[in-house]
Design goal:
The protein is mostly beta strands. Helix content is 0%, strand content 50%. The protein has strands at 3-7, 10-12, 18-25, 34-39, 46-51, 58-60, 68-73, 78-83, 92-98, 102-103, 107-111. 28% of the residues are buried.
């Protein structure tokens, strides 16, 4: 059974950092492309970052490029999203996904002073 569980969200001041985790079970993450998405209040869900299987090439939305980093720990079967220089507009529920079929329940990130 495929499961994804996000953690690490919370309240952070502008300019701060957070590291989100996505613990996967029921499959091996290194065999699949994995991604992080977010949905802000009143807005559609958007792709934030993705990491390919095997070689692990990465891609980012223009809005987070240079500030966010996606990586994975194959030994822990966990995908991470390191978020630096956070802005109020980064406030959203962040979701981990495998393809378009499997999603976690999300973790809330609030950037506010």
């Amino acid at each position: 059974q495929v499961q994804l569980e996000e953690s690490g969200g919370g309240l952070v001041q502008p300019g701060g950092s957070l590291r989100l985790s996505c613990a996967a079970s029921g499959f091996i993450i290194s065999n699949y492309a994995m991604s992080w998405h977010r949905q802000a209040p009143g807005k559609e869900r958007e792709l934030v970052a993705a990491i390919a299987p095997a070689g692990g090439s990465t891609g980012y939305a223009d809005s987070v490029k240079g500030r966010f980093t996606i990586d994975r720990d194959n030994a822990k079967n966990t995908v991470y999203l390191q978020m630096n220089s956070l802005k109020p507009e980064d406030t959203a529920v962040y979701y981990c996904a495998r393809g378009v079929r499997y999603w976690g329940k999300g973790t809330l990130v609030t950037v506010s002073s």
